[in-house]
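Structure ticket #2291
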Amino acid sequence: MTVRKAWLVAGAVLGAGLSFVMLLVVGVYVVAGNLASGVGGATKALAKGAVPAAYSGLVQKWGNLCPAINPALLAAQLYQESGFNPRAQSAAAAQGIAQFIPGTWATHGIDGDGDGDRDVWDPNDAIPSAASYDCKLASYVKDVPGDATRNMLASYNAGAYAVIKYGGVPPYKETQNYVKTITTLEESFAAPVTRVDPSEQAAAAITYAQNKLGTPYLWGGDGTAQDGGRFDCSGLTKAAYESVGVTLPRVANDQWNAGPHPARDELLPGDLVFFSDDLTNSRAIRHVGIYVGGGYMIDAPRTGAVIRFDPIDTPDYFGATRVTEDGAKALPTTV
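Resolution: structure written out below.
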């Protein structure tokens, strides 16, 4: 949505846009069909820049406090609760980056940094306290059958007694949704340990974006009649995936969390590609495009430009997200 350096693809490539994109889509997916095997098992590593640099060390350290949690899961909880905002406060009086209510903090808050106080507004205390609370809940339900992490998350939402009573995640829709949300978000904060499965909706999303080539940029544009059919960067990617039934958040730095993150050499057409002036912090992302293969994306670059092909290998390249329907659904509506 802000100005970034861009270069136009050569006129001959632009003139043959349809064949260029479709050849890339077909060719890359043929290779991907043989190589992709999906994310399997929990990982202890955070995806690059997924957690703001100020907190990533804390999340990595305390996310390994007990077997029921890992750094990516702890990051997913913090993002869901506050969007990593240490000054967040809810209408229900939940406070800080981990959104403890005063009663829970009084019982479970710890002095994570050893400075002699327990400050709910200090991430150095609140993040360790969140991990400690998770592990305490896991200990309460350690003898319950099933997955220890899912039982811990269910205890966080519904209480340990309900998990014990039902012998696992209780049949409460809110609790089941919470467990699914956090475990799905976990994938977007974890560094993949295997190749990421291709997106089923990618080709149609690319077709949508391709049909908008040449459309003038509009800051804040969503492509509506009121906007004259114009888009900004995240408005375009949101509309492209909405055309295939996947609803993304409006802004680029939240779209980052809509799925797992393939490495640069594992990109496939349809992946969202992101750019930032701070390569250590996903919350600082300020531009997004939709990858079409061959090192190029379709994007809405800036005021005065049009939707076009641009290369992705620039100094401000941050990383990529392979959008999944579950990943998009798991994102909080406000962070």
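Closing remark: The beta strands are 272-275, 287-293, 296-299, 308-311, 317-321.
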